[in-house]
Specification:
Elements: H1 16-39, H2 44-62, H3 73-102, H4 109-129, H5 132-146, H6 171-179, H7 188-209, H8 212-224, H9 230-242, H10 249-267, H11 271-284, H12 295-303, H13 307-335, H14 349-356, H15 360-371, H16 376-400, H17 406-451, H18 453-465, H19 469-484, H20 489-507, H21 512-522, H22 534-543, H23 547-557, H24 560-570, H25 573-576, H26 580-602, H27 611-624, H28 629-651
Length: about 650
């Protein structure tokens, strides 16, 4: 299980003692989080600083100051040792001094100094764990807070357009905003990372070490392997399943792609096509309930909508996305005359379920507890307990069925302890980057709240779009791609919703939950859209293809990432509900529009589609998105007519590679 912010295949070699220290601190962090999640909930000014302190120490141990290419040396250890001490100070200062800090009117000088240290070590840790882009953006926002006539950098006020100008703030005021309240580093983003996100990252780590990932991949193969382009379809289904485990599109690619991409190439998919399909499918794991990466938890906190409600309304859009990718994969397989794998090359569904059915129990328990109304953090705790219980029961059953002995039981217990400690360490390691991204996002949130930048950005957005909603959404899409060049998708979502959320909801009238879903979906585009396309690059590495060509294929197969959010905006009942006939109608036309779009994009469905049919399909699809039921109906009827013509033409065609 790897989170969406920190897939680090090139992690540097470390001395043995450092690896031991990372293991011990990671296990302690995970145990602390489990204790706080299931046994003794803590107040925010205890849990968040302690969590950040652990994360900072881990970060400076895992990522040396000089990077992977050079050993730390004496100077490196002096720097990193100092930063580790600062990380411990950051974690301990607020919990130890909370009574004094809470009862004072003005911050003490020492509190300001510790605040400055906190900001600096957070920016440096983010540079190492997340990337330089995150640090630059955080630093830019801090400079913006100082840039005003009464701030620390008054000369910068002359360089800012009038709408962005503000009074400016002192070092004391900014340091206090960042570290002595709930609107800065210790604000909502880090709070979500320290509670919901961490416990589900840990849940994913336990699923990983017990073999759940292999189970979901095998189940996908067994279900789809005999169909045309079976491995590609298995990639789609396996990535949907891995979305319940992994918080990272890149992690999904390297996990499922290691199996699916070589098989796709063997069946006849071009290397770039195979890598692109895997990247597009893996990106869908981030929008797939119940976890949706870290987005569902953040969205719940921002909107105050219960987590389980966000999960429920996200199911149908996620199915639409995976359905669109699946259909495009099927069309590509039929066009190229592919066949499925033979029966002897695939496991049977019954055999896979017999071997790993117990992995479904934690997911059932997770959903059941959410529906029962438990908090996500408590649900995550019990889900971890259920994983351990299910894996232990299965291992014990296997042991008892195969000539049990005292020595075998001791070995079984030792193996169980080793796997548990491994999961605790993996969970902590995988939380480092997402927590650092959320800590820097807290800096951004604090500056936006201090300066009123969100309202100013909204005014600029309205001015640029001229009040046109479609242009505004295109601007959001462009902004998400630009942010995605330097930020992981979780951080991009946080920054973008802070800046454009008020405009989407207050000025353009988009309901709050839909605005968040649209921004969250668009924030995923850096995984598949050139020139960034991180998941596409990972797919290219496995497929042995050119990164940009693979990314273009991923971008093509992931088109639902752009169309489905538009459908949410113009057909609100898909998300917010409404009269049952309207909900059914909107669901139906969404499916028809995506099928029509896929056929036009590939120029094929039951048979090759003439260019004039493809050209007519485009305005028909646009009509389905029009917020007028008569135009929707006309567009839907036209799409169905064109698809009907394609089907009718295929009836007389000779059977062959281009016959479905």
């Amino acid at each position: 299980m790897v989170t969406d912010t920190e897939v680090r295949i090139d992690e540097p070699e470390q001395p043995r003692i450092v690896l031991r220290a990372i293991t011990v601190i990671g296990i302690l962090l995970s145990l602390f989080q489990l204790w706080a999640a299931g046994l003794q909930p803590l107040g925010l000014f205890f849990q968040r600083p302690i969590h950040l302190g652990f994360i900072l120490v881990l970060c400076f141990l895992i990522y040396p100051v000089w990077g992977k290419s050079r050993p730390r040396g004496v100077l490196g250890w002096i720097i990193d040792g100092t930063l580790i001490v600062c990380g411990i100070l950051v974690g301990a200062w607020l919990p130890v001094n909370i009574d004094i800090i809470a009862n004072q009117i003005f911050p003490r000088t020492i509190d300001v100094v510790v605040g400055i240290i906190t900001v600096l070590v957070v920016l440096e840790a983010a540079r190492r764990a997340v990337g330089l882009g995150m640090t630059i953006i955080g630093a830019f926002f801090l400079v913006y807070a100082f840039a005003g006539s009464r701030g620390e950098l008054p000369f910068l006020a002359d360089w800012m357009p009038g709408i962005l100008n503000h009074r400016g703030y002192s070092l004391d005021r900014v340091a206090s905003q960042m570290t002595l309240g709930a609107e800065g580093i210790f604000g909502l983003p880090l709070g979500v990372a320290a509670t919901f996100i961490f416990v589900f990252v840990l849940f994913g780590a336990f699923l990983e070490v017990t073999g759940a990932g292999k189970f979901f991949i095998d189940l996908a193969y067994a279900s789809t392997g005999r169909q045309r382009g079976g491995p590609a379809k298995a990639a789609v289904i396996a990535s949907a399943g891995m979305g319940s485990i992994s918080g990272s599109a890149i992690a999904n690619v390297v996990t499922t792609g290691a199996f699916t991409i070589p098989l796709m190439k063997r069946l006849g998919y071009r290397p770039a096509q195979a890598g692109g399909i895997e990247a597009a499918a893996s990106t869908g794991g981030q929008i797939m309930p119940p976890l949706m990466g870290a987005g569902a938890f953040l969205m719940s906190e921002f909107t105050r909508v219960p987590y389980v409600d966000i999960v429920l309304v996200s199911i149908f859009p996620a199915i639409l996305y995976f359905g669109a990718v699946y259909l495009l994969v099927h069309i590509a397989a039929v066009k190229q005359g592919m066949t499925g794998l033979s029966e002897d090359e695939l496991p049977s569904v019954r055999a896979v379920l017999a071997e790993g059915w117990h992995f479904l129990l934690p997911l059932v328990a997770l959903v059941a507890l959410l529906v029962a109304g438990y908090s996500p953090m408590r649900v995550g705790f019990y889900a971890i307990v259920s994983v351990v219980a299910a894996a232990s029961a299965r291992a014990l059953w296997t042991f008892l069925a195969n000539s049990p002995s005292a020595g075998g039981f001791v070995a079984l217990c030792r193996r169980g302890i080793e796997l548990t400690l491994e999961a605790l360490e993996i969970g902590a390691r995988n939380a480092v980057a997402v927590s650092m991204a959320c800590a820097v996002a807290g800096i951004i949130v604090g500056v936006v709240g201090l300066t009123g930048l969100g309202l100013k950005f909204s005014a600029m957005m309205i001015a640029f779009s001229g009040g046109n909603l479609v242009l505004a959404l295109i601007l959001v899409l462009i902004a998400s791609l630009i942010l995605g060049m330097g930020l992981p998708v979780t951080a991009a979502y946080i920054v973008l919703i802070i800046l454009v959320g008020p405009a989407l909801t207050e000025e353009f009238g988009i309901p709050l939950l839909i605005a968040h879903l649209v921004v969250f979906w668009y924030s995923q585009d850096s995984n598949v859209t050139p020139p960034v396309a991180l998941a596409g690059f990972a797919g290219a590495a496995i497929a042995g293809s050119k990164p940009m060509e693979t990314s273009l294929q991923a971008w093509k197969f992931a088109k639902g990432l752009y169309l489905i959010p538009l459908f949410m905006v113009f057909n609100e009942s898909i998300i917010l509900g409404g009269p049952l006939p309207l909900v059914i109608w909107n669901g139906f036309i969404a499916i028809v529009a995506l099928v029509g779009f896929a056929a036009a994009l590939e120029g094929f469905l039951w048979r090759a589609m003439p260019i004039w049919q493809r050209a007519l399909m485009v305005p028909a699809v646009i009509a389905v998105f029009w917020p007028d039921i008569a135009i929707e109906a006309a567009g839907t009827a036209f799409i169905l007519a064109l698809l009907g013509l394609n089907w009718w033409g295929s009836r007389g065609a000779a059977s062959g590679p281009q016959s479905a």
